[in-house]
Design goal:
The protein contains ten helices and eight strands. By secondary structure, the chain is an alpha/beta fold. It has a domain of about 140 residues: Glycosidases (TIM Barrel), CATH 3.20.20. α1 runs parallel beside α2. The protein starts with a helix and ends with a helix.
Length: about 230
Amino acid sequence: MWRTIASRYRNEPAVLGYDLLNEPIPNIPAVEIYNSKLEPLYKRIVAAIREVDRNHVVILGGAQWDSNFAVFGPPFDRNAMYTFHKYWTDPVKSVIQPYLDYRDRYNVPIWLGESGENTASWISTFRTLLEQNNVGWCFWPYKKMNSESCVATFDKPRYWDEIVQWAKARPASVGDQNFIKQRPSLDHSRAALTDLLQRVLAASCRINEPFVHALGMGAIQRRFHTMERG
């Protein structure tokens, strides 16, 4: 699969690189036995990519939700970078030290490929820590429903609670007719999704200024509204 993808995009300069696996091997003891198999799998994937594309970066994430770099030996590709994800940790240097150590030991680029879902204060502190240590970052999400932990937020669509309540329920058995009868009407479902499409438009969203400033991007609100008018 990755050989096919790389063959299609091998000459595409808009593509930075290929992030091969998102958060491989969860933090569950029963599956941590596969940690030793992760890097060999990466080597097989990269070898397939390099058959057709030697231009693009390959991006390698650690085990346990991209957090464990102990699974890596010395870099095996000359055009690789390593990514880690961090959530709900203390925003202190000791948290990122293992990744800094790997970077400095092998002189390879690293970046925080995913973080967020936290307060503006935490985002600001952690973002500053990363920049002080020359680590690029990606905080998400950009847009959420009724939330302050994002750049832009929008109101809940009509009938949304009704749909969510039914989606969270569980049928007593396969083909539970009583469960099926309780589902939202087709009219409500269509109205909810139609309303959702309107509410996620830039013109319907609100900017969470504390979150934006926590990212060090105070001018984004002006750019947002320029984009909205465009």
